Amino acid sequence: MIRLEGIVKRFGQLEVLKGVDLRVERGEVLVIMGPSGSGKSTLLRCINLLEEIQGGTIYFEDRAIGRRQENGRWVTDSPREAARLRQQIGMVFQRFNLFPHMTALQNVMEAPVQVKGMTKLEARTRAAALLSKVGLSQKLDTYPSQLSGGQQQRVAIARALAMDPKVMLFDEPTSALDPELVQEVLDVMLALAKEGMSMVVVSHEVGFARDVADRVVFVDEGKIVEQGAPGEFFTRPQHERTRTFLHRILRAPGSGGANP
After folding, report:
1. How many CB atoms are closer than 10 A to CB 175?
2. What is d(CA 251, CA 254) in angstroms, rounded to the nearest whole number?
């Protein structure tokens, strides 16, 4: 579904992604782990065209995104075409990014009405169904400031789903939450995985990665160091850098892990 070939991303003189190659299969749950500043979040933002790459090509369903070939040369996509592709790639951010002046229902309705041209009645019906799906059927008319962090993140997930995406990107969706609120968000993500949603998740939630992921990728200093099935990745990591990282996070309080 998604293919990255030689992705390079720079911020000024700082090279954050250094020739990353990665594939995400349809229906796969891919969890990306790595230390802070390793390029994980930037990688997601590049896939969703929120950051412009300086090298390589990103393909979505075998179609290059952000640019296309015309007469043998690459041409940057129009903003309209980029937006059309972005509709198919839902993204959930670390900090929710809800509209504070809109209720939960209005937050979920907004994009289908403004972007897809859905009628307000259709959008309202779908938004209500999605909020029910994430366990918030009693919070339709509640504003973000009146919701817990976990509830806000579940609204954000419903909002992304409202666009009927083919793949969902999650950028550390639980890192801003109090520990007791983490599981309610992970439960929603688990339900999506069981439904066959293609997902790329940047997270340090070891339990989720071990139990739900089809593949775990370890990123460090802008490169993929190691990847594999969770059983292999967590019990028999091959690279010394991976072993050091796992030793640290598996000993962290609340990691849900055990010593490798």
Report:
1. 13
2. 9
- Judge contact between 170 and 213, C-beta under 8 A: no
Other C-beta atoms lying within 10 Å of the C-beta of residue 26:
11
Could you read off the pLDDT of 157-183 as tens digits, one per residue? 999 999 999 999 999 999 888 888 899
3-state secondary structure of 229: coil
Residues forming beta bridges with residue 220, ordered by sequence position: 223
Is 241 in a helix, a strand, or coil? helix
Q: Which residues contact 173 (CB under 8 A, 6 or more apart)?
A: 92, 93, 94, 153, 157, 185, 189, 201, 203
Distance CA 259, CA 37 (A): 24
Quote the pTM value.
0.91
pLDDT per residue as tens digits for the range 193-242: 999 999 999 999 999 999 999 999 999 999 999 999 999 999 999 999 99
Q: What is the 3-state secondary structure (H, E, C) of 111-161?
A: HHHHCCCCCHHHHHHHHHHHHHHCCCCCCCCCCHHHCCHHHHHHHHHHHHH
d(CA 107, CA 109): 6
What long-range pairs does 75-82 form, CB within 8 A, spacing at least 24? Answer: 82/49
Phi, psi of 212 (to 5 degrees): -115, -35
What token pair was written down for 208? Answer: 């989720």
DSSP code per residue over 160-215: HHTT--SEEEEESTTTTS-HHHHHHHHHHHHHHHHTT-EEEEE---HHHHHHH-SE
The owner of tokens 């995104």 is: 65
Give me the residues paired with residue 168 across strands.
Answer: 90, 199
